Amino acid sequence: EGRSPETHNHYRSAIKFLYKKVLKTIWDDDTVPAMKRERNLPAVLSCDEINAIIDATPNLKHKAIIATMYSSGLRVSEVVHLHYDDISRTNMTIHVRETKGRIDRYTILSQKNLDLLTEYWYKCGRPKDILFPSSWTGGYLDIASVNQFFKKSAKLAGITRHVSSHACRHSFASHLFESGTDIKYIQSLLGHVDPRSTDVYLHVSNKTLLGIRSPFDNPEGGES
């Protein structure tokens, strides 16, 4: 009692090992069942809130990073590892290499975000390798710094509830589901290997990958 599901299951695994491997005793999983973890979802931001955060961001590089996370559904760790060659203007896709599951994927590139990335590229040193290099080291940006400036921009945009940069990715998925995009295509864009990771958005429709439009390209002021 009072223990988290993770702690409970850790203790349970240790006891199970003791019974089965050391004591050679039959173990019944139903006697001490594993606890299910609660799935605490990050806040979903509306299209208006996303645009307000981007508009409130004074630094052009930071603005482009936030727009890229939202418009393509990227994790923070993925956006900081993007390279110039990962952006395909021909196919309007982004090649995501540094993924959580270590499996490369392609996701959609918003025209609106491409325009912003182009502006950033021309005005901020025309980086040819790392797309968003650190101003201090020239290497990859620190994830903590992205979270820090995102929260600052959210505050400047007048958003009072707690939000993290991961809300961009979650909002991307939620807005696509609300617009009727098939769950299997959202799963592909997010890079979810396990379909259960995407079950929280469960809506079904009949769109194809080529017809998917980034929510960032929706008209200004859209509700979600």
UniProtKB/TrEMBL annotation:
Transmembrane segments: none
GO MF, one example: DNA binding
Keyword RNA-binding attributed: no
Family annotation (SUPFAM superfamilies): DNA breaking-rejoining enzymes
InterPro entries in the cross-refs: DNA_brk_join_enz (IPR011010), Integrase-like_cat_sf (IPR013762), Integrase_catalytic (IPR002104), Tyrosine_recombinase_XerCD (IPR050090)
Protein name: Tyrosine-type recombinase/integrase
Gene Ontology process terms (BP): DNA integration; DNA recombination
Pfam family, one: Phage_integrase
Alphabetized UniProt keyword annotations: DNA recombination
Tyr recombinase domain residues: 40-214
